[in-house]
Amino acid sequence: MTDLLHTRAELDAARKALPGTVAVVMTMGALHEGHRELMRTARRHADHVLVTIFVNPLQFGPNEDYDRYPRTLDADLEACRAEGVDAVFAPSREEMYPGGSPTVTVDAGAMGTILEGASRPGHFAGMLTVVCKLLLLTRAHLAFFGEKDYQQLALITRMARDLEIGTEIRGVPTVREPDGLALSSRNRYLSAEERTAALALSRALRAGASHTVAEAALAAAAAILADSTGVQVDYLALTDPELGPAPAQGAARLLVAARVGTTRLIDNVPLQLEIAA
User: The pTM is what?
Assistant: First the structure.
């Protein structure tokens, strides 16, 4: 049975009743197969699993989709029950931010100003603030996040390390549709035509990942995007695993963001680079 918790007091009581290792999966709801894979991974590595569902207003800009972001709590609870989640913490805005928006937030630092941070000012401060609060409230030993939001994962990992939060952050590979589209709660905004256009992102990343030299990887991905209609590219970037400059050889990450219709999508893949012969 999965308990539904709405208040800090209910969460605290439920957390005290969980012996052993506790993992948390943080979501904004509208759960899909990618979220369920996070829950399954958490179940394999912990004695108990908590899921949080909270559409965090701090990480939405003034022209973004906070009001229309899908809220499907009943269906989300069924998904959590099916995956054996112990409890779901679904607080109200007032419960998470008593007294209004916090005056003290978590600064994302230099890593928060590039890529998504350059396009969405303030987004990562809002995201890190709520993640920090939820890590402290759940007192989880482990927290699982999808690699689809790779910059988010990198920042949360750095925050947990820099602030000595004590929770181990683990990434889980991106879950995709059979045609390659990365699962996202925002995919439901796409029309059939837009969804077809959105496949250019995963095609571009696959093309890039087929190369082991940095310049060739970027050029291959850029060529796919340049030939795609209905896709307005925000950025295409090749970095090291911590979002610094791409190495000449070794592990790297190829990341893309684009707007398809009115929907902004992101995706990424890992690469292994080698020095050109």
Answer: 0.95
